[in-house]
Amino acid sequence: MKNKLTVLLCLFLTSGCATRYQPYSYFGGGGYRDVQLAENVFKVTVEANGYTSSSKATDLALLRSADLAIQHGFKYFIIGAMSDDSRSSSYSTPTTTNINVTSYGNAAHGTAQTYGGQTYFVHFPAPSMTITCFKEKPTFNTTIYDAELASKSLRAQLGVKQP
């Protein structure tokens, strides 16, 4: 029972550590970056921390894309290009050995315990997408996102409040 409570507490404490919907901040655990490339073209990148899934990072990038379209007076957008600039890293904990020796005359008995030496792998998702925005719904044969609907749906899914 104690182990279950410990695991639940750890999950609860780390669940709040995932990247939030915010402008990028190194000390704030990541966030989005965007740049305007043309009147109706934007590049959006989300640099997430190791507690954020790739799926959530992509949803954050889609939400930022929808919000950018709305902020610039557009109703629709399409994704023109998408890339994954994710990176992974690993680290290993140091190894420590404790030795206890007891001697009795000419004999010695002892135990040794080694701790550490675990390797942890961390993945940092970084989806990037270039979007083209439109005031009227285009007739292209591709996925066309309704900016208002996408923003509303993604905010509900991610638990992000309306500004």
Q: Short description, anyone?
A:
The chain has helices spanning 2-15, 54-71, 147-158, and strands spanning 30-38, 41-48, 76-84, 87-92, 95-104, 107-116, 119-124, 127-134, 145-146. It starts with a helix and ends in a 5-residue tail after the last helix. The chain has 163 residues and is an alpha+beta fold.
Ordered list of secondary-structure elements with their pairings:
Layout: H1 2-15, E1 30-38, E2 41-48, H2 54-71, E3 76-84, E4 87-92, E5 95-104, E6 107-116, E7 119-124, E8 127-134, E9 145-146, H3 147-158
Antiparallel strand pairs: 1-2, 2-8, 3-8, 3-9, 4-7, 5-6
Helix pairs in contact: 2-3
Kindly provide the radius of gyration, computed on alpha-carbon positions and rounded to a whole number of angstroms. Answer: 24 Å
Number of domains: 1
Please report the number of helical segments.
Answer: 3
The residue-averaged pLDDT reads: 89
General description of the model:
The chain is of the alpha+beta class and 163 residues long. It has one domain (18-100, 111-158). 27% of the residues lie in helices and 42% in strands. The protein contains three helices and nine strands, in the order H-E-E-H-E-E-E-E-E-E-E-H. The radius of gyration is 24 Å and the shape is rod-shaped.
List keywords for this structure.
5-stranded antiparallel beta sheet, alpha+beta, disordered N terminus, rod-shaped, 3 helices, 163 residues, 42% strand
